[in-house]
Amino acid sequence: MPLARKRQICLTDTPYYHCVSRCVRRAYLCGEDKFTGKSFEHRRQWVEDRLLFLSTVFAIEVCAFAIMSNHSHVVLHVNVEKANDWTDKQVCSRWHKLHKGTLLTQKFMSTDSPLLTDAQRTTLHATLSIYRQRLTDISWFMRELNEPIARKANHEDQCTGHFWEGRFKSQALLDEHAVAACMVYVDLNPIRAKLASTPETSEHTSIKRRIRDFKKGKQPTTLMPFVGNPTQPQPPGLTFNLIDYLKLVDLSGRSLHPNKSGSIDIDESPILQRLGLDEKSWQCLFSSFETSFSMAAGQINTLKNYKRRRRQKYG
Q1: Which phi-psi region, left, alpha or beta, contains residue 176 (left: φ > 0; alpha: ψ -120 to 50)?
Q2: Does 2 score more than 80 pLDDT?
Q3: Which residues face 65 on adjacent strands?
Q4: Among 242, 88, 117, which Cα is nearest to 180's?
Q5: Cα 201 to the chain's mean position, in Å?
Q6: In Å, what is the CA distance from 306 to each residue of 38, 172, 173, 277, 298?
Q7: From CA 186, how far away is CA 118, in angstroms rounded?
Q8: Cβ of 242: how many Cβ atoms within 10 Å?
Q9: What is the largest CA-CA distance in the chain?
């Protein structure tokens, strides 16, 4: 029996999570129906657009994503401090991008200084506290991602019923090693599935978006940025070097499928040494990420500490 979501996602353990959603019928809901030849490829863009929109609403940052023909991968980072710094107006404004809210929240946003009774202020404060919490909740993020896509696809198919499987799968990424390995694993999904031969031609992936903006001398505003390994205070972000990460993805992709026609011609990346992993252990980590780890991922000592904390908390 699967664990309750609140037991799988615990921000005191880690703010990083890998989430996977799969289509119910799997074969062609976001790809091409091999029996009729009808293409549903445009739905992959629906998912990508919705995902990146939500990253501008929630205090949840997208580290990596890959939208495949029958499932999607996202690596998420929950930024609770960011949500706590928002004013009540900012919280309300963000929630209203997703839902109408209540008559009270609409009144609150309609003027700079709304006239509210004490009871209304108490109710408003409680409501905004709920909104603030939801905007850091991965379950709410995935719900806001998947439900609109399901409704839109069912409308297009003129049918009803489930589009996605009932629950998304989540993995806790307990340390920097797990985050890096999972991001590489996600970014290489199209290459593994023979849908692309290089990262720059991998449609509907974070790696292609990063490469596109990298050529323009910037990083995507809708993805969590790389800040390197700073020796002085810098904005929050992934503690990898972007160039090293791009090299790592290409090197890993070449090692992952040495017998396939596509090849990635980029020099070996130094990030393996910085993370303290040899090439053999790194390949084992990224090549079988979903099957090697169940509910959480990390180094052995990190996983042992995680298991001990969960046992103490839940018995």
Answers
A1: alpha
A2: no
A3: 74
A4: 242
A5: 20
A6: 46, 10, 11, 21, 9
A7: 50
A8: 18
A9: 71
Measured CA distances, 279 to 152, 207, 238 (Å): 44, 21, 21
pTM for the whole thing?
0.81
Mean pLDDT over residues 243-272, rounded?
59
Looking at residue 268, its pLDDT comes to 37
Question: What does the alpha-carbon distance between residue 253 and residue 235 come to, in Å, rounded to a whole number?
Answer: 30
Contact between 177 and 285 (Cβ < 8 Å)? yes
Give ∠ CA 202-240-287 in degrees, rounded to 5: 50
**Confidence label for 81 from pLDDT (cuts 50, 70 and 90):** very high
Q: Is 9 a residue whose pLDDT tops 70? A: yes
d(CA 284, CA 13): 24
**Which residues, in sequence order, are CB contacts of 217 under 8 Å at separation 6+?**
none
**78 is written with which tokens?**
């929950």
Chain segment 109-159, per-residue pLDDT in tens: 988 777 888 999 999 999 999 999 999 999 999 999 999 888 888 888 778
Q: Which residue is it, tokens 């940025």? A: 225
